[in-house]
Amino acid sequence: MIQTLLYIFAGIIQGLLEWIPVSSKSNLVIFFMHFSSMNLTTIFSITIMLHIGTVLAAIVYFREEISTFLKSEVIYGVFSKNLKYHNYKEESNYLKFILISVFFTFLIMGPIYLFARNSLDNLDASIVLLGIGILLFIIGLVQYLSRKSKERQVNYSTKNATVLGLFQGLTIIPGISRSGATTSVLLFQGYSPADAFKISFLLSIPTVLIGEIGFAILNGIVFNKFILLGIVVSFIVGYIMIDVVLKIAKKVNFSYFCMGLGIVYVLIYVSSLIFNFVLWFF
Question: Average pLDDT of the chain?
Fold first, then answer.
């Protein structure tokens, strides 16, 4: 029963936070660190698996856009300047933008993961908490500053796609929100909040799918009935949250949530230090 509740709550956390720039991955790591006895390697594997639920939610929600991208004319238009595909020029440029971003994402993400994966279990839980708190505050501050950028005409340039992909690659590090980093970059590039969030959500689909395949090849598949439950819950909650976030993107500045959460985690770390010092002193 406790195990069931643990994964239901984990699915809710993933579904709620995946689309909000506060790093669902980081919050899941902290959640499992406090409510389970699993090591960090196992926790990280489970958080990766729970992303399946939210990426499936994105596929269902954006099924019309995905259907358009899969048209042969749009795909051919990515690689050809033939006027035959001129009617799909905008869609082809959009798809090319996403593909370039995904390429540079894994150019950065792969080496970072391979370098760090053997060190996860050697990290102290309290240091992980502090690091996540600091990174959440920094990414929240970046989000806040990016909101001040002026909106410009949408530009699906190779340069913009490359920068976006490189920053998304860094989000393999717990504490750096994928949606926070990508929407911030897009806002700095002049996209409107609504467009920035939509592109970020669409970008998550190939990124997570390729990431899941790569992770399974490197580490094998970590799967059981409880993880399946978490995936189902994250799918349901995630699907609802996509619509909510897109509707309130212009009205709500999520940077305050990110910075606030970062401060809370840092304060928890500091309070634990004080508590341990008091115990030692007396």
Answer: 82
